[in-house]
Design goal:
The protein is α+β, with helices and mostly antiparallel strands and about 425 residues long. The protein has three domains: about 100 residues, Nuclear Transport Factor 2, Chain: A (Roll), CATH 3.10.450.350; about 150 residues, Nuclear Transport Factor 2, Chain: A, CATH 3.10.450.350; about 120 residues, Distorted Sandwich (Glucose Permease (Domain IIA)), CATH 2.70.70. Strands 11, 14, 16, 17, 18, 20, 22 and 23 form an eight-stranded antiparallel sheet that branches. It is globular and about 75 Å long.
């Protein structure tokens, strides 16, 4: 009897498996419910728009606005609006050379104008921030065109103080997180925005800002000049073409801000959990061994960027390193990105400085999500945190006068700091010695 009970018990699924099956079923139901709700909302909007069109006076145009949901089919949407198949075919054929309706983006809006039930006058779909697809009907037939959204490009100045993260501080002055990312990228060669920012740090900049007539959020153009004051030390950046005519940033005395390597393989808010050392107690192996890199503790999924341009010489699994990407750079340098949850590059692929190569994870011998970053030069690993990063070429002598003119023009528009907080005087900062 005991053996029979044991046999029955062994046939029962483990409690953990049952729990996982239950959670899987719950997640599947939630996903289905969210998708079904979105579909019902689109159908309801389409039905109300169609009913509004039917009830409108014969000669009154009715405009309907619909939000694209996942899986929206443009032809089916027009069918729900009682548009005839002939008109639907003519609309899609007119738009075909300009736009593929399979590329509708979830969350974008489609505006339809009808003069009577089934009588389509125009369709407008916003492709991106700056462009709309218009399909109109007149006496000659149906035609499609891509139009620019009316907007105004203004040069604006703004300033702020660090209280929390750079993202939070930029948003506190009424701007979007995209601007914080752009500002961090400018100073990425000198400042590690995971570890360097301090409460009370200040930033100010002059930039191009595009505002749209349709009321959508503004977009950002070129950052013309910027300053970040880190614990009393100001870093300035002036936009000016490099030797190849490409946009580049220079300090106010004409030195290039671009270095051979970025200051960090991550962009924001990561804690250094382990430094370069010749003797460290390994948390998994429980032995002392060298740790020839820098560990950045960050959540799984945090983007990892290449610190310099180069070529991927390895992308795959490597024992204790888990998912590893190795990039070969100029002058005998090679960088390693270990314990990744995902890899976005393949062996042999060229990469650019700042390009996303993977996501932080905990693969291999790791007790938690982090990036183990290592840098090797001609066979020996070096302490990346203590490296002095060599700058790129300064402003050429023949371009110095043009650079000074550009620099002084934009620096004069920089917002002034409160008395007692000036980082420099305009007269002193605008006239460094020529390189």
């Amino acid at each position: 009897m005991a053996s029979e009970n044991t046999r029955v018990t062994n046939l029962r699924p483990p409690k953990m498996l049952l729990l996982m099956l239950f959670l899987g079923a719950v997640l599947a139901f939630v996903s289905w419910h969210v998708r079904r709700t979105a579909e019902r909302r689109l159908q309801a909007e389409t039905r109300m728009a169609s009913e509004a069109t039917r009830s409108a006076p014969a000669e009154q145009e009715v405009t309907s606005e619909l939000v694209v949901t996942r899986g929206t089919n443009f032809s089916e949407l027009l069918q729900h609006m009682d548009i005839s198949p002939d008109i639907i075919f003519a609309v899609t054929q007119a738009a075909r050379p300009l736009f593929n309706f399979r590329r509708l983006q979830q969350g974008n809006r489609i505006t339809l104008t009808q003069s009577a039930p089934g009588q389509l006058e125009s369709v407008c779909y916003q492709i991106d921030r700056d462009h709309e697809l218009w399909i109109t009907r007149d006496a000659s037939g149906i035609a499609a065109s891509i139009r620019e959204i009316p907007s105004t490009l203004r040069t604006v100045a703004l300033a702020g103080e660090i209280d929390g993260s750079l993202f939070e501080s930029v948003m506190a002055v009424g701007e979007g997180p995209e601007l914080a990312l752009r500002l961090a990228e400018i100073f990425a060669w000198d400042l590690d925005f995971y570890t360097d920012p301090r409460p009370g740090d200040r930033f100010r900049l002059v930039l191009e800002k595009r505002e749209y007539a349709n009321g959508q959020p503004p977009s950002y153009g070129r950052i013309l000049v910027a300053e970040y004051n880190n614990a009393g030390r100001p870093y300035q950046a002036v936009l000016f073409p490099d030797r190849r005519g490409r946009p580049a940033y220079y300090s106010t005395n004409g030195q290039s801000l671009q270095k051979a390597f970025l200051r960090s393989p991550l962009k924001f808010a990561a804690r250094v959990s382990s430094h370069f050392t010749r003797r460290r107690f390994h948390p998994v192996l429980k032995i002392y061994r060298p740790h020839l890199g820098t560990d950045y503790a960050a959540p799984t999924g945090t983007p990892v960027q290449a610190i310099a341009e180069g070529r991927v010489v390895f992308s795959g699994r490597k024992r204790g390193g888990g998912n590893v990407v190795q990039i070969q750079h100029a002058k005998g340098y090679a960088s390693y990105y270990m314990h990744l949850s995902r890899r976005f590059v393949r062996t042999g692929q060229p990469v650019q400085q700042g390009q996303r190569v993977g996501l932080v994870g905990a693969t291999g011998l790791a007790t938690g999500p982090h990036l183990d970053f290592r840098l090797r030069q001609r066979g020996g690993f070096v302490d990346f945190e203590k490296m002095k990063l060599p700058p790129a070429r300064p402003v050429p002598r023949r371009e110095w006068a043009a650079f000074v003119t550009e620099r002084d023009k934009w620096m004069a528009l920089m917002p002034q700091l409160a008395p007692g907080n000036e980082t420099f005087s305009a007269a002193e900062s605008h006239r460094p010695s020529a390189p």
